[in-house]
Specification:
Length: 142
């Protein structure tokens, strides 16, 4: 972020907010419809679903905080930019944790519980959603 102009940074933050609000959160809500019911059965408890939902709530809260910070940011105000950077770091950390938990805990749990046909159907449904929600924004650029 240090090598960019304030206007370039504002545009990038705007892109990140757009990605979070219009791409990531809708994808996560579809996961809730497709993935979570299978997970609740596989885990025989709601705990993994509750963990993912807590991550979703925090990502959504931080996305709103990031958007609010971006909207109220006068170009050139260093303290405001520091707050935006902190929020970006927080959203990045929570999103990374969300996908790590999903990849390393949730999906192996599902794979152990589902038969190959059920696993393939679930994977196909998630891929279809991912294809319709692809974006040109690269969240990790920030």
């Amino acid at each position: 972020m240090d090598d960019s102009t304030m206007l370039e940074l504002w545009d990038r933050v705007t892109g990140h907010v757009s990605f979070l609000v219009h791409d990531l959160m809708p994808f996560v809500s579809v996961e809730e419809e497709i993935l979570y019911p299978a997970l609740a059965v596989a885990a025989d408890t709601a705990t993994p679903v509750d963990v993912l939902r807590a991550h979703q709530v925090e990502i959504s809260r931080l996305a709103a905080e990031l958007d609010e910070g971006r909207r109220s940011l006068p170009l050139g105000e260093e303290a405001g930019w520091r707050a935006v950077r902190r929020t970006l770091a927080g959203v990045h950390a929570i999103a990374r944790l969300y996908f790590t938990v999903e990849d390393e805990v949730i999906l192996p749990l599902l794979e152990s519980d589902l038969d190959p046909h059920e696993a393939e159907e679930l994977e196909d449904a998630l891929r279809a959603v991912a294809r319709t929600n692809t974006t040109s924004h690269d969240f990790q650029q920030a």
